[in-house]
Structure formats: structure tokens, C-alpha cells
Amino acid sequence: MLTRRQALSASALFAATGPAAMSQPRHSAQPKAGAGFRGGRKEAGPTGSPADTPIGPVDTIARWAYIQDFNTGASLLEKNADAEMPPSSMTKLMTIYLVYDRLKQGKMRLDDELPVTERAWRMGGSKMFVQIGTQVKVEDLIRGVIVQSGNDACIVFAEAISGSEEQFADLMNQKAKELGLTNSNFKNSTGWPDPDQHMSCRDIATLARRIIHDFPEYYHYDAEKTFKYNNIEQGNRNPLVQKGTADGLKTGHTEAGGYGLCASSKRGDRRVIVVLNGLESMHQRADEGERLMDWAFANFEDVTLFAAGDVVERVPVWLGVLPTVPLVGGRDLAVTMPRNWRKNAAVKVSYDAPIRAPVAKGTTLGKLMVAGDGVPGMEVPLLAGEDVPKLSLPGRAIAVLSHYVTGG
């Protein structure tokens, strides 16, 4: 007769990482209620208030802030992360995403030349200094947007792609929905102040992550420290790129938004994305960006709990040709953890046992749950690692008889 139970296992996972630790005898501490960092929507708070992190509050002078691990997508720091804010020139990340998308689709080439209209030529703010009536190569315009933060270059792209900047803004909003940017609205391609144009720090980080992931063949432009066009050489406005502590992505500044920064850095196998806004000076932006980037690398690590085919647990099978079926994750489980995660984490593997045969490979049979103080809470489905056919009728009869005779 089938019985229902839960198997608690894998406590040894936190003494050593990997499948060997997962196969230890069944016992583990229960996750603490409410443990783990979940973040959430917040209203904009005072500039000097601390940010929320999995390891406790962290002070930052930025009004808006968000830090994300690139590999796992884990949130490492949040301060007004979902609040709508003026994105300033960080808006240009969406413009360049659309340009890269057209390049990848073959609708545009790096050596294509695009016309400069009077509107693009007259555009104020930071400029690439394109000349009216000329044709500019796409690759030069990309550098003009990324390195020089050229508003004029953005308008050249917008008009070439959509016919007008207004229509291009519609395309930006359409792409924002596709990418899951839930707190963004675009009115122009440049970040020029507009009361109806806004993004959130989380949306900017999401967009930056997609740029790096979707277009690795073009991301190298972000790391260029200078670009010369029309005999005018300008340096990359990203202070972390200039110092060599980041390889992208964009800065911004307006009166309403203050000084902002979206930066990404890779150290070893880890990459981190930092988004800040609402700072009072370029000096603050540079110092706070570098400080929080260092903090993210120093306090967290990426951990592979198990690989796709690793056996997490073996579950008894009732009336099957095999006595057990392996539980596997079905994918690599890589998570971002605080450096001292092994001291605080608890894991539980849950399933009903025995499993009634037949069992089809890939069937969800249970779940692995991880939680603990400062540990991001998660649940991962566990799947049957192989097929277990049902015993033949004589075999089932023998198994049932043996069960009642021996109690096994």
C-alpha cells in the first residue's frame, strides 16, 4: 500500500558543494519562516536612506539604486529599484538595443551610411558633431552614442529606422514590453528631459543584461575609452570604463534625475551590473559606482548547487522494474549566495514515496527548497532521471506478496 511522506535531505550540501554532498543520509534543518531576500516595489525614499540587501542594510547616497548578478539574475541591492525616475542618457541603452537588433537581423550593416537631417544636426546636449547633409557610417554612429553619448547620433538612428523620433519612441515602448520592462515609458531616443519619459533602476539593469547577453558581438564598443569623429576626440563618459574597472555601459545626467550610472564589470567567472541615479556630482557617481561594484564582488559568490544530470536523491518505486528512480534537477542550478552562506542555509528535498510505477523520464516528482538568513529563497522542481517501467503481472504479484510477508 502506498504511503505518503517527505524526504528531508542534503544538509551536507552546505559543508561541500556538489552532487556528492547531496547524496548524504536524509536529514536537514527546516527553512526558517520568511527567510530569504525577495525585494519588492518601493516608493522613492530619502537620498541618505540605506538600501536593502540579502545581508542587511547598506548605505548609499544614491536616491535610486539596483545591483544584479548577471549570471543568475539575483538581486544583490535594492533602493527604490522599481520607482519611476528620469533615466537621462541611460535611455540610450534602448536606442542601441534596437540598433543591435537590426544588425543581428541583417536589416542594417556596420558599413551602411545614414543621412544626417537638420533636426539631428541642431540637437542640443552632448553631441557627436555630425554635419547636416552628410552620410555617417553605422559603426561610427554606434560609437557616437556609446562613447560620446551623442544626442545627434541617436536622432540619426531614430529617423533612419522609423522615419521620425516619435515613431521610434513607439518602437522603443514596444520593445520594452517584449523585454519585460514594467516601469519604463519612452518619448524620445536620447533621454532629453520629458515629464512622461521614465525608467526604473531594475528596468535599466534588465535592459543592460539583455544587451550583454543578446549582442556579445557588439558589446566591445562599450569598453572603448575614446572616439574621434569630425576631428573632435571625446572620452567615454563612464568613469568606471575610464578607470578600467568596468567594460560598459552608460551614464546620464539631467536636473531632475541627477547623475546616473549603469555599469557592468566581469571578474573571473562573475559579472555584476550596477545601476545608480540621483547623485549630486560626477565625483559622487564615480566613487559610489566603484564602491558598490567592489562591494557586490566582495560579499557574494556564484555557486553551482548541482549540474543538470546530477542525482539529487533516489526515491523508492512501487511495483517498478527498478527499486528506485533518481531525482535530477534537469538543468544546472547556479545561484548567487552571500560569502558565508554555508553557515546560514537550509535545504529540504520533498517528494511523495514510494512512487507508483510506471515512471516516465522527465516527470516532476518533487522539489528542492533552499532558504535561510541572508540566503535567497528558492524552489526547484526535481524530475525523474530515467524511465522505470511497471513490473509484469507475475512480478507485481511477487512484489505485493513480499511486501505483506516481510513488511518491506
Question: What is this structure's SSE topology?
Answer:
Blueprint (H helix, E strand, L loop, with lengths): L18 H4 L27 E2 L6 E2 L4 E6 L5 E5 L12 H14 L7 E3 L2 H5 L12 E3 H9 L4 H12 L2 H15 L21 H14 L11 E4 L2 E4 L3 H5 L4 E7 L3 E10 L2 E10 L2 H18 E7 L4 E8 L5 E5 L4 E6 L2 H4 E7 L3 E2 L7 E9 L5 E7 L8 H14 L2
Parallel strand pairs: 13-17
Antiparallel strand pairs: 1-2, 3-4, 3-11, 5-6, 7-8, 9-10, 10-11, 12-15, 13-14, 14-19, 16-18, 18-19
Helix pairs in contact: 2-5, 2-7, 4-5, 5-6
Walk me through this protein's architecture:
The structure is a single chain. By secondary structure, the protein is of the alpha+beta class. The chain folds into two domains: 11-30 and 307-406, D-Ala-D-Ala carboxypeptidase, C-terminal domain (Peptidoglycan synthesis regulatory factor (PBP3), Domain 2, Sandwich); 50-302, Beta-lactamase (3-Layer(aba) Sandwich). The chain has helices at 19-22, 92-105, 118-122, 138-146, 151-162, 165-179, 201-214, 239-243, 282-299, 341-344, 393-406, and strands at 50-51, 58-59, 64-69, 75-79, 113-115, 135-137, 226-229, 232-235, 248-254, 258-267, 270-279, 300-306, 311-318, 324-328, 333-338, 345-351, 355-356, 364-372, 378-384. α2 packs parallel to α7 and α4 (138-146) packs across α5 (151-162). The N and C termini lie close together (11 Å).
Helix content: 25-40%
- Strand proportion: 25-35%
How many structural domains? Answer: 2
For the record, the CATH architecture of the largest domain stands as 3-Layer(aba) Sandwich
Mean pLDDT: 86
Number of distinct helices: 11
CATH domain fold name of the largest domain: Beta-lactamase
Any idea of the CATH class of the largest domain?
Answer: Alpha Beta
Order of helices and strands: HEEEEHEHEHHHHEEHEEEHEEEEHEEEEH
> Separation of termini?
11 Å
The major sheet is characterized as: 6 strands, mixed
Uncertain regions: pLDDT < 50 for 5+ in a row? 1-44, 395-401
Q: Class by helix and strand content?
A: alpha+beta
